[in-house]
Amino acid sequence: MSRGEKGHLYVVSGPSGAGKSTICRLVRKALGINLATSATTRAPREGEVNGRDYYFLTKEEFLAKEKNGEFLEYATVHGNYYGTLKSEVEARLLHGEDVILEIDVQGGLQVKEQYPDAYLVFFKTATKEELEKRLRGRKTDSEETIQLRLRNSLKELEYEKYYAVTIINNTVEESCAALRKIIEEGRQ
Ligand code: ADP
Ligand code: 5GP
């Protein structure tokens, strides 16, 4: 991969609880990559800040932006709308910044259609027991939400074949190193 003048676009997907946010946060920090904040109609979790973790929108606000062509991609995930705003991505790539999108598999394929050079990275745990343990350990979701996310993880795993590479998130250190290597190679 040679960089040219533009930044590279990375898509990170995989079942909820696999560790995408944890690893991407550390890698962004290590490599100086800005967060591309998504929009969602889901309610904020305790401690989440509007404009930082997500742009928290009502369904009406979300659909108005969609109608206005403001989304690069959007999808319904676990019963809520989530979408990537073009304003969080396009200018940064043009200015030579790398962008990491932590989005679901439906969104990942939409991005790949529009940016064929986007590099798709799939995250998963070694076992489904480990996924459940992490979802529970996060202590952010109700039992109903955890069950929904576990059911949906099976569907998400079917999309792994469309991704360029899979990182099995065993240890934080190894997974960070693996993602960093991909992005650093893109910068050479
Ligand atoms: P996702 O963004 O994929 O939904 P999170 O990053 O929120 O997942 O991680 C889910 C939970 O698992 C969090 O509590 C996080 O601290 C923990 N976690 C993430 N990576 C690991 C790992 N390699 N080993 C153990 N726990 C992890
Ligand atoms: P959470 O509710 O845990 O923050 O996110 C749930 C899932 O929504 C994540 O696993 C992530 O894949 C997906 N997601 C977050 N932002 C976006 C987005 O902008 N677009 C799409 N398609 N999915 C997203």
Automatic annotation (TrEMBL):
Binding-site list for ATP: 14-21
Reactions accelerated catalytically: GMP + ATP = GDP + ADP
Transmembrane portions of the chain: none
Role noted for this protein: Essential for recycling GMP and indirectly, cGMP.
Documented EC number(s): 2.7.4.8
Catalytic class of the enzyme: transferase
Compartmental location: Cytoplasm
SMART domains: GuKc (SM00072)
Record-annotated Guanylate kinase-like domain positions: 7-184
Family to which the UniProt record says this protein belongs: Belongs to the guanylate kinase family.
GO MF terms, alphabetically ordered: ATP binding; GMP kinase activity
HAMAP family attached to this UniProt entry: Guanylate_kinase
One protein family per Pfam: Guanylate_kin
One Gene Ontology cellular component: cytosol
Protein name: Guanylate kinase
Domain of life: Bacteria
Keywords: ATP-binding, Cytoplasm, Kinase, Nucleotide-binding, Transferase
Alphabetized CDD domains for the sequence: GMPK
